[in-house]
Design goal:
Layout lengths: L2 H16 L3 H14 L4 H13 L3 H14 L4 H13 L3 H14 L4 H13 L3 H14 L4 H13 L3 H8 L10 H13 L3 H14 L4 H13 L3 H14 L4 H13 L3 H14 L4 H13 L5 H17 L17 E7 L8 H10 L5 E7 L6 H9 L2 E4 L5 H10 L4 E4 L9 H4 L6 E4 L14 E4 L6 H4 L5 E4 L21 H4 L3 E4 L8 H12 L5 E5 L7 H13 L7 E4 L15 E2 L9 H8 L6 E2 L8 H9 L5 E2 L2 H12 L2 H16 L5 H21 L19
Parallel strand pairs: 1-2, 1-4, 2-3, 4-5, 5-6, 6-7, 8-9, 8-11, 9-10, 12-13
Helix pairs in contact: 1-2, 2-3, 3-4, 3-5, 4-5, 5-6, 5-7, 6-7, 7-8, 7-9, 8-9, 9-10, 9-11, 10-11, 11-12, 11-13, 12-13, 13-14, 13-15, 14-15, 15-16, 15-17, 16-17, 17-18, 19-20, 25-29
Length: 706
């Protein structure tokens, strides 16, 4: 066959390839190679067609042959890197693409492949730089625009991602990666309805794409439609059973609906499939903390095993002790994803407002994906706000060390967006966790867990990887809500019957809670139960799921009302409730404080070996220990007694707010006590002398794999 004939067959193959007929194209390339086995173009094109048909392993072999025949061809090297990416052989992909760029630094495709490779290797800043270079070379190329948007999303540059991807309009935008990334960015920015519209569009045009299904499921979760989200994740897993992202989403939907066993298994599998994604393992541990069938001792074991695994991978910084620095001005670093409108800020902002600026320099490391007026307030009150969402763990550790942080404080625990793996590298001499999470982090390199003597005991101290350092009174300070309505009299006085209530997240309402609620209701024959939560408005199936669980627990459903909408401040809901029910094992947090501020008592149990006694701590601090029960029977008795004594209810309604104002809302006093504890922890580091107010225990550290 003449050279001209070979070239015609090759061109025929390219035409078929461009028309989408890869099978016909491959036949042409093979026909060329039968005559001219050293034709690098044919091997290259055959490799590309084979890769597009889903056979990455064979594609690598074809492209390696092409590269041996034409080692100076930049496009062949770039295509080889793409095939290696599909094989998840990231070192080989990096080697091939860097070779391509040495041959032709202006190869935009190679820069895109380098960007993807760096992303998979966890080197997000380099991935972003490569994507920016690709777009510089081809500023109107759709693939370059889409790549940059994807890398901006990975780097946490959400607004930039939206601006980049919105350059693609009309049919140029109609591709699954663009719609899903744009929808994901808008979801993380809190633009939930816009995100859902984008992902609805993606689902309409690309219903079989796993990424589309998974991202639409996440958007449905954000708009409080967990049952529909559940279906999206199940569809994604039917197509790709090993999708860690879909399993993680499935776990979140199951958890929201109160299916803890199934949620834990989904999170465990997601973590197993991608053990480098800190979202998946923390989601597992967060769900475990909610699961009613796990004891606190078992929770401790799971958290500490996680901590051991993480700490084995990271060499910590060694910080020398220097007793002469024991009384120096301290630099305090707070790390949180919640420096925005978030419940945590109710307990944190007063600390910033009342801090001692002469003795403490304060830096806030913000992982917040969206910012608002609270973010601006934090920035104005601190000595510096450092945005960390685009930083790798190594970069954040370097920044913390460069900032000279003495005491680094985690405010998130295993809640969403935490940076606990940063703490595993010990970037600061003293590390502490406080406020955001009721259980141990599992990290031995966080030395202190700030708590109080009501929440924890000598027994429970053994279930923490940290030492427990106790505040003299409550471990929390509360900033009263600005939009709180005026107090009202107990609703039973106008209704003629008592109303118990729940405003808790559905995943906190365990079967053991419901059984206790049933005992309380069945002992007060004219009482009703009002369950209020926004997610209840998402669908009838969500309500029916809760109805079924409540009925199985023995709650008389003819005396239960659901609510999910209220005009004005959501705190108005408490004008309809006489007594709030508590939840277990993760006891009420902000809900208990807000209800108490509205004069609504929430009887609770102090049983630290079973549940975190956060609500009991609140009532001890404000001087109403009569609302704290010693066991389940005592709790039932207190709740029943409250609604049969209108005078007592009225007295609580009118005095609880004042009691809080004089104790747990005294920001000046609490901040002085809090800062004294920070000084104690620092002196312990400098001198080796342990502070008063801590539990001293010998821990048995588990030594096994999860």
């Amino acid at each position: 066959m003449t050279t001209a004939a070979v070239q015609r067959i090759l061109e025929q193959g390219v035409q078929s390839h461009q028309a989408g007929d890869r099978t016909a194209a491959a036949r042409c390339y093979l026909e060329v190679l039968a005559t001219d086995p050293e034709n690098p173009d044919a091997w290259n094109l055959l490799g590309v067609a084979t890769l597009q048909n889903g056979d990455a392993r064979t594609a690598v072999q074809h492209l390696q042959t092409a590269q041996q025949l034409a080692p100076q061809d930049s496009n062949i090297a770039a295509n080889l890197s793409s095939a290696c990416l599909q094989m998840k052989d990231y070192p080989a992909a990096e080697k091939a693409v860097r070779h391509a760029l040495r041959l032709d630094p202006s190869n935009s495709l190679a820069w895109r492949h380098l960007s993807s490779t760096m992303r998979f290797l966890g080197r997000v800043p380099e991935a972003l730089q490569a994507a920016e270079r690709s777009l510089e070379l081809t500023p109107s190329h759709d693939d370059s625009i889409a790549q940059l948007g994807a890398m901006q999303l990975a780097a946490g540059q959400l607004k930039e991602c939206v601006r980049t991807l919105e350059r693609l309009t009309g049919r140029r935008r109609l591709r699954p990666d663009v719609l899903t990334n744009l929808g994901s960015a808008r979801r993380q920015l809190g633009e939930f309805q816009d995100a859902k519209k984008l992902l609805d569009e993606a689902w309409e045009h690309f219903p079989g794409q796993v990424e589309v299904l998974t991202n639409r499921g996440n958007a449905l979760l954000a708009v409080h439609r967990p049952d529909e989200a559940l279906e999206m994740f199940r569809m994604a897993l039917a197509k790709q059973p090993n999708s860690a992202s879909a399993l993680n989403g499935l776990g979140q939907a199951l958890q929201t609906l109160g299916h803890w066993h199934e949620a834990l298994e989904a999170f465990r599998l997601a973590w197993k499939l991608d053990d480098q994604n800190r979202h998946f393992d923390s989601n597992f541990l967060y769900c475990a903390s909610l699961a009613p069938h796990l004891s606190r001792q078992e929770l401790s074991r799971l958290h500490c095993l996680w901590g051991q695994q993480v700490e084995r991978q990271i060499t910590p910084t060694n910080h020398a002790r220097n007793a002469t620095e024991a009384d120096k001005t301290l630099t305090i670093g707070y790390v949180s994803p919640d420096f925005r409108s978030h419940a945590t800020m109710r307990f944190f902002l007063p600390i910033l407002q009342h801090r001692n600026r002469e003795q403490f320099r304060v830096l806030c490391y913000s992982e917040a994906q969206r910012e608002d007026q609270i973010t601006a307030q934090v920035a104005s009150l601190a000595d510096g706000l450092v945005r960390t969402a685009s930083m790798t763990d190594a970069q954040l550790r370097e920044r913390i060390a460069a900032d000279g942080v003495d005491v680094l404080i985690d405010l998130a625990g295993h809640t969403a967006g935490n940076r606990l793996s940063v703490f595993a590298g010990q970037p600061a001499p003293v590390q502490m966790t406080w406020l955001g999470y009721p259980n141990t982090t599992g990290l031995s390199r966080i030395q202190w867990f700030l708590t109080d003597h009501v929440r924890e005991t000598d027994q429970t101290a053994a279930w923490f990887s940290e030492q427990l350092l106790c505040m003299p009174q409550s471990a929390c300070l509360f900033q009263s809500p600005d939009n709180a309505p005026d107090l009202t009299s107990p609703p039973l006085l106008r209704k003629g019957y008592p109303t118990f209530g729940s405003t808790h997240r559905l995943e906190k309402i365990s079967p053991s809670c419901l059984r206790i609620w049933a005992q309380i209701l069945n002992g007060v024959t004219n009482a009703r139960l009002y369950v209020f939560r926004d997610v209840l408005g998402s669908s009838e199936s969500v309500r029916n799921s809760l109805r079924r669980r409540m009925s199985e627990a023995g709650i008389p459903m003819d005396r239960v009302d659901f609510g999910w909408e209220i005009h004005g401040s959501y705190l108005h809901v408490y004008s309809e409730i006489d007594v709030l029910m508590d939840v277990f094992p993760w006891a009420s947090g902000t809900t208990a404080w807000e209800a108490t501020w509205m004069g609504v008592p929430i009887p609770t149990i102090r049983a630290p070996e079973v549940t975190v006694a956060a609500t009991a701590s609140l009532f001890e601090a404000i001087g109403v220990p009569g609302l704290v029960a010693s066991d389940t029977n005592d709790l039932v008795r207190i709740a029943r007694q409250l609604v049969t004594n209108a005078d007592q209810l009225s007295e609580l309604r009118s005095t609880l707010r004042q009691r809080m104002s004089e104790s747990v809302c005294d920001a000046g006093r609490f901040t002085k006590q809090f800062e004294a504890r920070l000084k104690d922890a620092w002196r312990a580091h400098c001198t080796g002398v342990m502070p008063d107010g801590m539990f001293r225990v010998n821990r048995e550290v588990p030594n096994e794999h999860l």
